[in-house]
Amino acid sequence: MKDSIIILCGGGPAPGMNTVVCSVAKTFLAGGYRVIGLHGGYSGLFSPKARTEDFDFFKADAYFNRGGSYLQMSRFKPTDEDFEKNFNLSLFTDNNIKLLVTVGGDDTASTANRIAKFLENKQYPIANIHVPKTIDNDLPLPDNAPTFGFNSAKDEGAHIARTVYEDARTSGNWLLISAMGRSAGHLALGIGEATHAPMTIIPEMFNKTDITIEKIIRLTLSTIIKRRLLGISYGTVVVAEGVFHDLAAEDIKAAGVSMTYDEHGHPELGKISKAVLFNELLEKEMKKIGFKAKTRPVEIGYDVRCQDPIGYDLTYCSEMAMGVFELFKKGETGCMVYVDAFGNAKPLYLHDLQNAEGKIPPRRVDIEGGTAQNYFNHICHFITPEDYEAAKKFVPNPEAYDFKKILNW
After folding, report:
1. Is residue 38 part of a domain?
2. Which domain holds residue 96?
3. pLDDT per residue over 83-129, tens digit each?
4. Each residue's pLDDT tens digit, 89-102
5. Which of 106, 136, 313, 387 is catalytic?
6. What is the per-residue DSSP string for 338-369?
7. Residue 360 in domain
8. Is 107 a catalytic residue?
9. Strand order in 52-55's β-sheet?
10. Domain-embedded: residue 248
11. Which candidate among 32, 171, 212, 354 keeps its CA 20 to 30 Å from the CA of 336?
């Protein structure tokens, strides 16, 4: 029987999913392997009726540059009992599978780490190589290398945000943009910087104080008031949805927000409009303090996940896929593929990346780094002590809207 590999995709989609899967398929087909696609993410590995289909060159060639994921994805997370009772080893033995390729983000990588340890402990001769995916850019790759999908999502997000900014300028309004990013603000910051938004609010900004809804609203008003002082009556504020993750439960409840949680314990942020919520809270605060500005909500979310990948990700994903083949032929397993700036593939061992709980911790924005600091210092507009006297025209306590005081910077 021909040696085989099997590929699955976990989590949510990102531009380049098909590029990775189909490039892996092309590379291994050319190497004489059978390539099996597994639908349903990890659920297929813990089911006696796994839904699979073979890839040939024509299928891979037809889908490698498309958005979305040909292989149906899933957020299924196996329990310890699943590993002991439901792991479908016969799927591997019956098909002579030598390599499991997993494609996904931090949760998928953490499960890949568990699978690698499980296979090693059971002495099953199956290699496991993970390909890091997420538009959130929050996997810990060296040298600040991006995760695939991030640049394509940022490109489309910036396209939407600059159109929105032009609407704000044309109509004299303020548009509040919520951008995806569960635990890190890379996407929001990238969109804000690319479109010269005068304020971007991300979780990492609150490195010296707790995140509260009140502080988020005051940061927003800080930029609106500052621009009013500059004679500018419009603008955009980009807010990372991840600020919800660090809000205290009582703060969320007090704001009247009802949250549901997914199987990983994360708030299901996609079920509510964060932009609408922020807009409503901001309008309430402006009415309370007697300040007037026209605001409108805009959500940037699911519309950036399944778009066609840009050239950067087409190249990057192809290089990672070829890197999977190179690492496999060298006998690597239990690792994440990393491609450096010169196109060289290297293994990042999952056991070296895990924390005490065996999970891969997210990479967050370096708030002290040049990207963040230069953006906040040179592009953003916000109240400073020099503005206090003039700002009293709009609010009696301008120091409460001082950007650095709010953040304790």
Report:
1. yes
2. 4-148+309-353
3. 989 999 889 989 999 999 999 887 887 788 788 788 888 888 889 99
4. 889 989 999 999 99
5. 136
6. EE-TTS-EEEEEHHHH--TTS--PPPPP-TTS
7. no
8. no
9. 52-55, 34-38, 4-9, 97-104, 127-132, 335-339, 345-349
10. yes
11. 32
